[in-house]
Amino acid sequence: MADIDELKKELEKHRDEIKLKLHLANMEAKDEWAGLEKKWNDFTSRTQVARSGESIGEAAGLLGEELKAAYQRFKAGL
């Protein structure tokens, strides 16, 4: 019976560690998503303004490519 109690304690420890890591990963994902949303809003604003000037359009295009790469990294991390 003592072996089972020790096994239970060890499993509880691993379980708690995993739960903590999942919680922290979730918080990191939320923070990263918030950053991506900020870039998305910036991108959409710039695309609206881009119609009025070539250099702004180029900047919006670069931001769009950066956002695309960030979305791909985020998706791969899930």
Mean pLDDT: 83
Envelope shape: rod-shaped
Q: Structural class of the helix and strand makeup?
A: mainly alpha
Radius of gyration: 22 Å
Q: What this model shows, in words?
A:
- By secondary structure, this protein is an all-alpha fold.
- It has a domain at 39-78.
- It is 94% helix and 0% strand.
- It has two helices and no strands.
- The protein has helices at residues 2-50, 54-77.
- Helix 1 (2-50) packs antiparallel against helix 2 (54-77).
- The longest helix is centred in the middle third of the chain and has 49 residues, at 2-50.
- The protein is rod-shaped, with a radius of gyration of 22 Å.
- The two termini are 40 Å apart.
- 3% of the residues are buried.
- The model has no long low-confidence stretch (mean pLDDT 83).
Q: Strands, helices and their partners?
A:
Blueprint: H1 2-50, H2 54-77
Helix pairs in contact: 1-2
Tags for this entry?
single chain, 78 residues, mainly alpha, 2 helices, rod-shaped
Outline:
By secondary structure, the protein is mainly alpha-helical. It is 94% helix and 0% strand.
